[in-house]
Amino acid sequence: MTATEHLLTCLAEECGEVMQNATKSLRFGLADRNVLDPTGPTNRERLVDEPNDLMGVADMLADRGMIPKNWRDQEKQDAKRHEVAKFMDYAASVGALQITSSPQHLARGADLAGKKPVSFGPDQDRRALSNERTP
Fold first, then answer.
1. How many structural domains are present in the chain?
2. Residues 8 and 58 both lie in one domain
3. Is 115 exposed, middle or buried (0-12, 13-18, 19+ CB in 10 A)?
4. Residue that is last in its domain, among 20, 37, 63
5. Cβ–Cβ < 8 Å for 14, 54
6. Can you state the percent helix, strand and coil of the chain, rounding each to 5?
7. Are the beta carbons of 43 and 29 closer than 8 angstroms?
8. Which domain holds residue 94?
């Protein structure tokens, strides 16, 4: 195995750990602790730790020139926040999500380059968000 393969394997493993902690948080709650380690970190703490581990491996890839050194991109992160907020808004509009505050509130704190939140009614189609074509 090469160093690239090793680091990419580590990156994939860290992605899996982020996913695992997100699903455990859904199943057992953010304040829950592993029943086998009742004094260990909460799911909330793990949700902070694991993405940081993932970013650490990504930084190692950058240190070795496998990805650009400036791989972190605030504009892309802001765009993702905006996209997730739009789909949350859509999910709420079709009754699949109960939210107590505006999904756009979740995208705040960053300049979204003038992008306006999209709101969908029951008769509108989510394909408008992704430019999907109907068959």
1. 2
2. yes
3. middle
4. 63
5. yes
6. 55, 0, 40
7. yes
8. 74-128
Looking at residue 123, what DSSP letter applies?
Answer: T
SS3 33: strand
- The CA-to-CA distance between both ends of the chain, in Å, stands at 44
50 vs 56: CA distance, rounded Å:
10
Token pair in block for residue 50: 């694991």
135 lies in a domain?
A: no
Query: Mean pLDDT per segment of 10 residues, for the chain of length 135 residues?
Result: 96 98 96 94 96 97 96 95 94 89 55 44 45 42
pTM recorded for the entire structure: 0.70
Residue 77: alpha-carbon gap to chain centroid? 9
Question: Would you state the structure tokens that stand for residue 70, as one six-digit string?
Answer: 């400036």
The answer to whether position 133 is within a domain reads no
Burial class (CB in 10 A: 0-12, 13-18, 19+), 33: middle
Q: Can you tell me the distance from the alpha carbon of 109 to that of 120, in angstroms, rounded to the nearest whole number?
A: 23
56 and 102 in a single domain? The answer is no
